[in-house]
Amino acid sequence: MKILIANPGSTSFKCKCYESSDWSVVFEAALERIGEPESALSYRHADKEPVDVRRPVADVEQAIQLILEALQTHRSLDSLAAVGFKTVLAKGVNGCVQLDDSIIRAMQEYEPLAPLHTQIYLTAIRVFESLLPDTPRIGLFETTFHHNIPAPAFTYAIPQRYQDSLGLRKYGFHGASHWSIARYLESNYLENKQSYTAISCHLGGSSSICAIRNGESVDTSMGMSPQCGLPNAKRVGDLDSFALLYLMEKETLSPAAARELLASESGILGISGISGDFRDIQAAMARGSERARLTFDTFAYSVKRYIGEYLAVLNGADFIVFTAGLGQHSPALRRAALENMQNLGIELDEKLNAGTPKEGVISTPNSTVNVLVLPTHEELIVAQQTADFIQENA
Q1: What pLDDT score does 322 carry?
Q2: Are 335 and 195 in contact (CB under 8 A)?
Q3: What does the alpha-carbon distance between residue 47 and residue 45 come to, in Å, rounded to a whole number?
Q4: Cα–Cα distance measured from residue 324 to residue 103, given in angstroms and rounded to the nearest whole number
């Protein structure tokens, strides 16, 4: 069974095609700079040389058409059992589901909570429906891994009627990534132990932290929307609700304007005034920028605070895992987030940390908490859940 996993972005489109018999990647593609005068497509079939194409690509529909043409150079589209999506959020929907009209309506209902992500996914789903009408479109919602967090962790202190009518509660996101980390730990680092606790730090342009006990999420930093928790590239992170109301009143901001401010002008970009990309922040720090230093320190402090919170929730941790682009590639951030935590059993090995391993332990032998850098395999989780759904509903 071949499963194509689609990963649409605002100016990019990536995908991987898995063979379910051994979960090997038989095709992968990435198209960057959609809408610019020259877009860049790179793709590769298993056992074939990679191909690079430069040409203008106007929109997501054209991007998907181009990638499907690349897939067809060695694979039949009829061989696809399904197209899987790492969908974000839908009212009253959880788990792995077929993306029919009722699910689309549920996604649209909660679109204001994750406007950019949901719009992009809705567009991509519609394009695949048009181009591959007979191929099932399956969504694994990012909230799935966090679905069973305990009530005290997901309950907001507002009247119960709003949780009942509108679904106002913590949902959590980056579920496929944190799920992937849990499975990877169980397969490679547990030495047949059945019980473990872990804190998974998915840090990048979009960041969240998850407390895991025995493979299940017990709490996570994002809430009903991906806007809270850690500061993200352009999204605000934690913010006092009355501070927002005060800002809206003083600046006469409409809800739409406030949403745009919090989702596109805040976060790392908002603090620094430079960029939402930590590569730019660290380059500015090297030039002596105080705002860049404040941005870095604020983010590192937020990571440390959530790690400390989840150490309390879990009563300690066997593992702290750093993953995703920033988590895997920034020794400085890992050092700042974990410094002065020796009394909590955390001791970073400076040499191992500075070596920026693709995978491995970066704590000292004396550390009672194993600190690791691990890759995340979100697409694989989506592919496996999609295959399970297809088989169960055959």
Answers
A1: 98
A2: no
A3: 6
A4: 29
